[in-house]
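Pasting two entries for a bug report.
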Amino acid sequence: MYGMLDDVVEQIERACPRTAAVLREARLFGVLAGRAGWELVCGSVRSRADTRLDWTPMVVVPTVTSAVAPSSDSPQRGDIGGAHRVGHCGAQLPLCLQPLRLAGITLKNRVVRAAAFGGGTIDQLIATHVEVSRGGAAMTTVAYASVSSDGRSFASQIVLSPDAVPSLRRLTSAVHAAGGKIAIQLTHAGAFANRSVTGVQQLAPSWIFNPAGWDFAREMTDDEAEAIIAQFASAATVAIAAGFDAVELHAGHGYLLSQFLTPFCNRRRGRFGGPTAQDRLSYPLAVLEAVRRAVGRDVPVIVKMNATDGLPAPGWGLTLSDAITIAQGFERGGVDALVLSGGTVSRSGFAMLTGDVPRFSMARAMPGRLSAIGLLVFGWVYVPTVPFEEAFFRGQARAILSAVGSVPVALIGGVTTEVTINSALDGGFAFVQMARALIRQPDFVRRIELVASAAPSGPMTAVASPCIHCNQCVVATLDPTRPVECPERRAPASW
């Protein structure tokens, strides 16, 4: 057997030396020895020789639970697609590799790239999203697509108008050709729109100070609020015309829909306001209804919402009870999936990230000297350091998960290991969203597939991202000349 294995190693090395190197680093050849199905595995590896992946060393964690089946009492959301649950040699696939049905589409696995900055040009966006699609993610999400020009927070931000369709078609076609599906996040920055970019005063649920620009947003009228609802619907129509498979409404992180939900930001009396979470939910629900009418039932409409606003004073932000009420309201409104996040960009930006806060790098990247000085002087207030913890929204997300009925719920926030993903899925979450781990290692899912195919039965190793949560990748959102990349990542090989 070992003699035959040596011959296979030599064949793989001639066909794809990078594959052989990764297999050695993961010590998979020791696993393959003695496996009756090793010829099938090697054939599978050989078929991937032409995929363009970032072949950085694989981090593996010993585990016996990475292929665990859902417990009988775990709430199951979405169509798992049982016919596809059997993998190589009859072994059950890890939960993270099993398909999921959302409205009219099927995701090939349970890993979605979260909406995070992907570049300031269409070519950069294509490179970012194609790479992660080739790396195996079921779906990738284009972040921060503004529904109107006066809702932008940075100059190179996508505006979902009809003239954007041709360039966005290039993006969606490229991702589809790479084997992935693609969603787009619909946003309006509201109070923290960048006045130097839009040229107009920001609109918000109520008059409020904007620490991001050191200016004030004014309270929008009911007519202006209605006009923005129509802009969300129009933007969704543009997204579908451009070939996107799903849309995500950004109702978290202090964007406009989140501002309507947050007590500190929404002090309106009458329409779209009120003292309770149910009162404040009326505006985001009106947006959801308009978007649903625009895209139809077959296009998944996902809502990203806060489980916590991360605001410092009691009564300013959402309570967990508020978040449960809001999630249940979105469920009744017909949302196809919920993504439970947290934090407020302009007041607690790193609550949604945790880990290191690269304030000096961020200050150097900021466009204005006053903003840079403000960050260095007051950054400890508006951008406080929050220590990293794996899956740091899991506690609040579980409480919300248990309170909603059948809507699929995604776990987001510090998800970096296969063990965490499968544990979340086993506990009832339908899928996970990941950003920094996939920036660091775009082929994360392919690595899981490789390990699963190499160990068709019995215990296997679990993949873990080498992301160190330095958050240097975040600096690209402030400096349009800086590439969207992980400084810890090895330079990609030439192909």
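Entry 2 (this is the one that rendered wrong in the viewer):
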Amino acid sequence: MRQLWSAHQRFFRGMLMCSKVPAVAHAALDAIHQRGMCCVIGLQSTGEAAIAKAEAEGNIDDFVSTPQIVLREVIEKLFPTMIARNADDHNQKFKELCEKIKPCIQAWKLATTAATAANADAAPLAT
């Protein structure tokens, strides 16, 4: 149970960090171009350790996503199966699972954030 909760926290920490990138990039560009300021952006976690581990194991195909690496590790460790007998079968099964998850991720991306909802509620009513 500890491993599942730990992976859960790592996965959503990565997802939350990814969701902040567009707003941070916009704020940084605004500060540079509109106000003539300098920007320093600190990262709490880059996911470098997870990426290095995946590279060492040969689990990286194309795009590198730390949440995807965490998800893969959770599935492999906590839900072992004997279906995939070789690496190609295993990677194909994982890709199929990712394709099934994509609609959920797309819905999550389109969901209204709490900040957007708060701003919409605070907007003055048009008369």
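Dev reply: Rendering is fixed now. As a check, the viewer should reflect this: The first helix runs from residue 2 to 35.
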